[in-house]
Amino acid sequence: MAELVADQARKLGLAAEIDHIANPRIEMEQHYFNPVHTKLLDLGLKPHFLSDELVGSMLEIILKYKHRIKNEIVLPKVKWNSTDQEMEALKLMWAGA
Q: How far apart are CA 17 and CA 15, in angstroms?
């Protein structure tokens, strides 16, 4: 997904880099549980997968409204094992305080 977005961003002249960030979750990366849900497919859903054109058009809309993006809250700041004090600081930041 990241590669698809980065490729389309580059086509629009944006300097796109993929940054690998630490996983904030506390459970294992690899897990035995693999749920499969096919009810919608059984009902006839025909999935529409992300295409270059769709991602490119989404990026164009994002660029149109880029002045509304709050850069300070884009990257995840959640820590699943954080302290109450850290959580309160995050709540204040998200509230715009």
A: 7
Paired tokens of 68 = 């509304």
pLDDT in tens, 52-82: 999 999 999 999 999 999 888 887 776 676 6
Q: What is the pTM of this model?
A: 0.61
Residue 8, number of CB atoms within 10 A of its CB = 22
CA dist 52 to 5, 39, 88, Å? 8, 28, 40
90 neighbors 36 (Cβ within 8 angstroms): no
Contact 94, 88 (CB under 8 A): no
